[in-house]
Structures are given as structure tokens and as C-alpha cells.
Amino acid sequence: MANHIVMLREDAIENIPHRPGVYTFKSNGVPIYIGKAKDLKKRLTSHIKSKEGKSTLIVEEADALEVILLDNEKEALILEANMIFRYKPKYNALLKDTQVYPYIYISNDDVPYLEIVRARKGDGEFFGPFTNVYFTRQLFEVLRKVYKFRTCHKDLTNPRNNKKPCMDYHLGLCSGICVGEESKEEYLLRIVELKKALSGDFTTVINFVQERMEQHSRLLDFENAIKYRDILINFNKVMESQGVVLPSSFNIDVIVERSNTYLVFKIRSGYLLSKLVYEFEGSFEEFVELFYFNKLGSKSDLPNAIIVEKRSGMKKISQLIGVEIREPNSDEEKQLLDKAIDNLNYEIGLILSNQRVLKQMKELLGLSKIPIRIEGMDISHTYGKNTVASLIVFENGEVKKDEYRRYKLGDILDDFESIRMMIRKRYTKHELPDLLFVDGGFGQVSAAYQALNEIGKECEVVGLAKEEEIIVTKAGEIKLSYDHPVLRLLVRLRDETHRVANTFQKTLSTKRSLRSVLDEIKGIGPKRKKLLLEHYNSVEQIRNVSRKEIEQLIGKKAAERLITEVCDRIDF
Asked: How far is it, in rounded angstroms, from Cα 273 to Cα 254?
């Protein structure tokens, strides 16, 4: 690999060889266009000599050209896609997510930990993207029971962190690698199997669980055999919740496109893992390149085949990525393609409909920009006790429940002060949305603006007064008909913020009742009380769990005391 930087002149490409590579046009040191070529000399000649179109604009604006020589076109393709993802040059067509997709992250620590993340940042390996956070969490929890990996971020090279196992170990969710319950070699072998599963080979999960179930059955250990049976049942339920179950041999992607909107079905081991939607202004071939060779697609997660509608010119990109791109050749594949088209048409209709409403909102409310991302908040309390705030997110007019947040504010009776506190908590550390929604009228809107001013940030705020559904902005009141789409969207926001805040407040009140019961039991100290409150929301919930589970959580003696002193009184 070699780098050459030349200033743009008539002879700028004179010394560039006829070799594969990646080129970058720059302006003031900033990449404005990145491209690849099988023959750099030939491709750049066409750019420099072009008299119209995008090439002319790029060459006129650029003051420097950087060339990276490579051995083959495939290397150039991979490097180009990753550089585009990193630098996002303004003249390159970019993939735009219609939503934020979750990944499962495996750290590059000596003893790796796993977690669910919303963006590919930092070192380590990322598996996904998956359709939504709810599905990802369900899958994550099942995999924890099978592979018993750690989720803590402890530095295991520090002896202080290896004194005693955490609660995950006692609950059977972690192997206890930190305290030497298994060797590092055993742990890493299991991580290798886990990576196979996350890459789509779910037969490894099924086989592992079945082997353990049969092993315990042969030993007449029916209690553990039942545990593994339940894990297998839960796994199938999680995977089937995605709505597509095919023969295990199906490891394919389905890609369809309409109106610069692309939909991708990722099917692994017969299960639909992801339904992904992107906006992209380039060609179909360019989309395929970017999806499979930048940070959005994992080279380790390539399918056996990519199913598309009848389309010419795919042979070259198929050869480059090493995957067959073809039309369906079976009834199942044809049905999948039809299903993908139906889903794409629905998504496009949703996008277009929501875009119209958001444009109307901008105009009617006098906003400076279209409110693509709206965050809404509401306050809830019981006579000033257990005051909480909800934070909900609408993006492109649709809810994003995986980004909801709930905040404890203490015991505050004043709703205005609660709003100010909530805004300080949230936006001191987080980016502001395009529009902030508060449940209430002028008082609530003013409190929001005051808090934003205190932290030195600016954002447009809108409120909705409950009585007559009057929209409140900084400029004044707006009254719309009850069936107006802008008002209907704001009512959805208000109802959702209200629901989330009230549900959270009710949960805390229930936990407070449990706390008062635990306070009366001798031997249940602060640590055990904290553990119980973290795992259970109410006395009724404790009532319905097994004695063994309570023992694993707080120890046999404390569990006995809890059962004898409390459970008798509540008819345990």
C-alpha cells in the first residue's frame, strides 16, 4: 500500500499508475469525495476531463488528490466503504438509517464481556444490526443462560475485583470466571461458540442446550434437565417472535428498493434476525457495496445468497463480495421477496405520511426546522412524593421505545421545578432534539425555556394544554381542529409521556410499600434489602418465586427469616 498526494493541475494524474486503489479529493484538507477504481489512471482521467455533472463540481472544488495503491479491486472496495463511513464526504451518497439499530458487542478484553449497544463505536466485535432493542434483549438473556458470559466491565487484571462473585453468578447467568470458577481457556472456547451463534449459526445454541438437557436426564437430574428444556422453549419463542421461520439451511439476505428507500431482510438458520430500512440516493450496486463492506454490515456475517428482484449488472459486485446475488429460485424465496416488498411499501407510506405531518408542524408552529426527532416529558407524583419524569422519543413521527428514559426526582410538589430539574439532568449530558415537548401550558413551556437558558443551550419547546388541547409555543397559543394531523401527533406524544410517567411512579410506590415491609424484618440489612428491591417490585412478586431463588439472592439464613417472618403474614 502506498500513498501519493498531488495538487490538482492539468498534469495532476500524470504519474498515477494503472493500478487498483482508492482516491480522495480534498478541499482544505477535508475529504469531499472518495472513490475506488480497478484502474486509478483511467478512472481519475475521466474525472479530470469531465465537462459536466458531479465530477466537474468535485474537481473544481478540490485542491488536493490523495491516492492509495492496493493489490486488487476487492481491497479497494473494502477500504473505500470504510473511508466513506468514517469521513462522510459531501459528494458521496451515504446510507441513512431510518432508525437506530441495536448491536451485541463483545469487548476485546483478555476476558471479554458482552453488552447491547446502539452504535458501532470503539474496539471489539459488533454483531447485528438487529431489528429492535426488545428482540435483542430477549435474545441476549437467553444466550446468557446458555453461555454464561460476563456483562460487567470489571478490570479482571486487578486482584481487588476477583475476591467474590457477583449476583449474576449466584443466579446462574455468569460462569464466575473472575473468581476462578472456570479457566480462561474454557471461557474463551465458549465465547467462540457464542460468536458462531451471533453470526447466525443458531444450531450451535440448539445443540448445546439439547446436549445438556439429555445429559442431565441420563443422570436422573430432572431439575436441571427441565431448566435446559425451558431455555430451549424460550429460545424458540424469542426467534419465532420475529415472524419468519424457515428451514435451518436458509442463510440469506433479501434486498428490495423503491424511491431511494432500501429494505434488507437478514435470515440466519431459518430465522428472521433483522428487518432494516435505509434511505440511499445512489444506485442499487452502490448500496450493496456500502452495506456489506462498511460498518453497517459485518464481513463475518455474509449470507450464502442475496435475493433480489430481476436486475442486471450484479455479476461484478457479486464476484467482489463473494456472495451469489440472484432472483428467487424456490417458493419460499419468492414468498420472502414478496413479504419484503410489502414491508418496504408500508415503510415508504409511513415515511411519506409522517414527513408531510412534520412539515406541516414546522410551518404551523413556526419552527426553524422540520422536527425529525422530538423528545417529550411529563411529571408524575403522589402528593409530592416519589416524583418522577418520563422521557419519550419520537423519530420521523414514530415512537422509539428503546430510547425511553425514566428519572427519579425525589419528593417535589412543584411541577415547574420538576421540569427544570429534569431538563438539567437530561440535557447537561445529552444532545438536544429538534423539538422538546412538555405536557402542559405556558407555565411548563416557560419552565423548560428557563432551564435550557440556565445550562446554556437552545431548543424549541412546545406544550399541549389538557383542557382544550391548545398548542402552546413561545410565541403564543395555536388552536387546531381535533382531527388535524399535527394535533393528533402532539396528542399521541402527550398521552405517551403521561402513560410512561404514571406507570413508573406507580412502580416506585409499590416498591416503597415493599421497602416498608422489609424494614420490619430483622437480619435483612441494607445490602440484602437493595438486592431484593432490585429484583422484585412488590410483596406479591416475592410471593410467587421459589425458595431456592430467594436463597440464591440473599443466602439461606436470610431467606429462611424472610419466609418465616413475612411470608406467613402474607399467606406465602
From this structure: 12
Beta bridge mates, 2: 69
What confidence tens digit (pLDDT) does each residue in 445-484 have?
999 999 999 999 999 999 998 767 889 998 888 888 877 8
Task: For residues 296 and 553, give the distance between their C-alpha atoms in angstroms, rounded to a whole number.
Answer: 40
pLDDT band at 10 (very low <50, low <70, confident <90, very high): low
Domain 373-507 in the same topology as domain 252-346: yes
Which amino acid type is present at position 431?
E
What is the rounded average pLDDT of the residues 120-140?
Answer: 80
Whether 376 contacts 439, CB under 8 Å: yes
Q: Which CATH number fits domain 520-567: 3.40.50.620, 1.10.150.20, 3.40.50.970, 3.30.1490.190?
A: 1.10.150.20
Determine the angle formed by the axes of helices 53-61 and 40-49, rounding to 10 degrees: 90
Q: With 50 as the cut, is the pLDDT of residue 143 above it?
A: yes
Strand partners, 36: 22
As a whole number of angstroms, the distance between CA 98 and CA 396 comes to 8
Least confident of 33-42, 188-197, 290-299, 500-509: 290-299
Give φ, ψ of 456 to 5 degrees.
Answer: 70, 30
The separation between CA 241 and the C-alpha centre of its own chain, rounded to angstroms, equals 18
Please give the Cα distance from 460 to 434 (Å, whole number).
Answer: 7
Q: Mean pLDDT of all residues in the chain?
A: 81
- Residue 401 to residues 99, 375, 497, 504, Cα–Cα distance (Å): 12, 11, 11, 14
How far is 411 from 383, CA to CA, in rounded Å?
9
| Residue keyed to cell 421459589 | 546
Under 8 Å between Cβ of 29 and 91:
no
- Rounded CA gap, 429 and 545, in Å? 39
Architecture per CATH, 373-507:
2-Layer Sandwich (3.30)
404 compared with 547, residue with greater pLDDT: 404
CATH H-level superfamily of 2-92: GIY-YIG endonuclease (3.40.1440.10)
562 and 555 Cβ atoms separated by less than 8 Å? no
The whole-number pLDDT of residue 296 equals 45
252-346 — its CATH code? Answer: 3.30.420
Q: What is the CA radius of gyration of the chain?
A: 28
Task: List the chain domain ranges.
Answer: 2-92, 103-240, 252-346, 373-507, 520-567
b/e per residue 393-426 (b: at least 16 CB within 10 A):
bbbbbeebebbbebbebeebeebbebbbbbbebb
Which pairing describes strands 324-326 and 21-27: parallel, antiparallel, or unpaired? unpaired
Q: Tell me how far apart the alpha carbons of residues 563 and 470 are, in angstroms, rounded to a whole number.
A: 54
